[in-house]
Design brief:
Layout: E1 8-13, H1 15-19, H2 28-42, E2 47-52, H3 70-93, E3 99-103, E4 112-113, H4 116-124, E5 128-132, H5 142-152, E6 157-162, E7 167-168, E8 180-181, E9 183-185, H6 186-192, H7 199-207, E10 212-216, H8 222-227, E11 234-237
Helix pairs in contact: 2-3, 5-7, 6-7
């Protein structure tokens, strides 16, 4: 077994990461690329849990949801995360990785209900667990779901995969000389209003001293580098 910096991690994937350049739905090539990287990390001996978003199908706070009741829109967003979780499960199982989907919204024909002890047992047995359905409650983002599940399963860290290299003091797409933070505190993120994760998620991690690593998913091998302790992206801690 490799010398791991993090033995049990929760990876937060956005729905958009699975859509790739399509922008909508699931890109079959991209999801299999991601699954291959996850399988490689899993074979190192990492206990891997995943929370996947649903923005490639529907987001409760998106423009198309503006005239909808917020609760209904958020429930639609939660169902979108289940679609992504099932797609990712299929891709991982094609890599011969035993995978379980647990949903916060019960739908027994397609996923297990979220049961904390069962999730931890799956991890101990070497299975990847994908948490779908957010927290099961409206008004909470999948970032908050990731923070909550990470603490429930006693993860060593949250790894948030993004399309930029880390946390910047301004949007690096719009500001050419934006500065990236190698390390930053939870308090600084909240004070500066940086759009890393929502405030509820950051506060949960701060209150429980759970490290967050923000890194670029588009650089092949970055997930592996993070779990092996290389200085990739930005580290958020106390």
């Amino acid at each position: 077994m490799a010398d791991l910096a993090y033995k049990r991690v929760l990876l937060k994937l956005s729905g958009e990461a699975l859509a790739a350049k399509q922008g909508f739905g699931v890109d079959p090539e991209r999801i299999h690329e991601v699954a291959a990287e996850l399988a490689d990390v899993h074979r190192l001996g990492v206990e891997l849990a995943i929370v996947v978003g649903g923005g490639n199908f529907f987001r409760g706070v998106a423009i198309q949801a503006k005239k909808m009741d917020r609760v209904s829109a958020d429930h639609m967003g939660m169902l979108a995360t289940v679609i992504n979780a099932l797609a990712l499960q299929d891709a991982l199982e094609k890599q011969n990785i035993h995978t379980r989907v647990q949903s916060a919204i019960e739908m027994n024909q397609v996923a297990e209900p979220f049961i904390r002890r069962r999730a931890m047992r799956h991890l101990e047995k070497g299975r990847v667990v994908i948490f779908a359905g957010g927290t099961g409650n409206p008004y909470f983002s999948t970032d908050t779901a990731a923070s909550l599940r990470a603490m429930e399963i006693k993860a060593d860290a949250i790894m948030k995969a993004t399309k930029v290299d880390g946390i910047y003091d301004a949007d690096p797409v719009l500001v050419k000389d934006a500065t990236m933070f190698e390390t930053i505190t939870y308090k600084e993120i909240l004070t500066r209003g940086l759009k890393v994760m929502d405030a509820t998620a950051i506060s949960l991690c701060r209150d429980n001293n759970l490290p967050i690593i923000i890194f670029n998913l588009n650089n092949h091998g970055n997930i592996r580098r993070v779990v092996l302790g290389e200085k990739i992206g930005s580290l958020v801690n106390a």
